[in-house]
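Please, structure for the following, as tokens.
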Amino acid sequence: MSTPHVVVVMGVAGTGKTTIGPLLATELGVPYAEGDDFHPAANIAKMSAGTPLDDTDRWPWLDAIGQWAHNRAGLGGVVSSSALKRVYRDRLRAEAPGAVFLHLTGDRALIEERMADRKGHFMPTALLDSQFATLQPLQEDEVGVSVDVSGTPEEITQRAVAALRRLED
């Protein structure tokens, strides 16, 4: 991408945001920020206990991610955030109007399998249904692309880079 955008890597848990985000950032030559690192301890404890977050839990988290993206405006960056609902993405865009979204999508069975293989992550597979129930895919008026998560991380990253470059055409 010729313009240093801030890319928000979004999707349900287990789609590979934490894997693809750093690979994408390296490919684009910009810094990466892990969205989970912006969660307060109370949110992590809640999710670790198998309890989905509510919007009251999410607002400070989204604001912190949005502030990071705002500070990277014109410099570029990649940050992960589930950003499952339109209102969450709107909140991120309120802080960082130039942000673009990379929605990692995939078959539920594949995502569940990948989640089950993860070690040391606080999000249990039991919350996957709530993630899919909450998900509102990108809409036509939102700047972003969707990329399927089948294949290797490198293949997914290359598809993401190509799709993001097409946004500039």
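The CA atoms of residues 20 and 157 lie 6 Å apart. The two ends are 10 Å apart (CA to CA).
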